[in-house]
Recover the amino acids of this structure.
């Protein structure tokens, strides 16, 4: 889906087909590229992280950045694209990969946050009967305490003077 969106994006077609659009078309047909990115993103996204907390997102972006600038990743994608018979420059491949990874990370985060929010709404607790009785007791205690204080202040102040 992301590659199709990138290939149809008007920003990449302002001056005809850009290198990004051509790379999108090539990559859509090859399963080796899909496996390469699946392995990378499986490593970045830890199972069990919902990305709903700031700490989880910070950790994920730290791993994402470390992966993106690692020598193994750079060598891996250069070797992969060298086997694809793509005749473009290395900077075009780097640009394509940066755009693709940011699109993928955006889609993955939005889907994972949606799933986390659905789970949070589903797990939202209802107030039990005993908790409700406790809340009524506390509210009644507060009202009774305020009433006592009011009556005490009212009896201390003479009725002709305003307190």
């Amino acid at each position: 889906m992301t590659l199709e969106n990138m290939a149809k994006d008007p920003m990449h077609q302002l001056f005809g087909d850009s290198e990004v659009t051509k790379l999108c078309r090539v990559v859509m047909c090859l399963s080796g590229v899909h496996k390469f990115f699946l392995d990378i993103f499986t490593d970045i996204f830890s199972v069990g992280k919902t990305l709903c907390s700031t700490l989880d997102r910070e950790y994920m972006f730290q791993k994402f950045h470390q992966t993106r600038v690692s020598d193994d990743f750079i060598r891996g994608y250069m070797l992969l694209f060298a086997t694809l018979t793509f005749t473009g420059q290395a900077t075009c491949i780097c640009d394509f990969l940066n755009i693709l990874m940011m699109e993928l990370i955006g889609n993955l985060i939005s889907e994972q946050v949606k799933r986390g929010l659905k789970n949070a709404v589903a797990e939202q607790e209802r107030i039990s009967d005993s908790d409700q009785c406790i809340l009524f007791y506390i509210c009644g205690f507060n009202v009774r305490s305020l009433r006592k204080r009011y009556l005490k202040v009212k009896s201390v102040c003479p009725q002709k003077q305003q307190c």
Q: What stands out?
A: Residues 90-122 form the longest helix (33 residues).
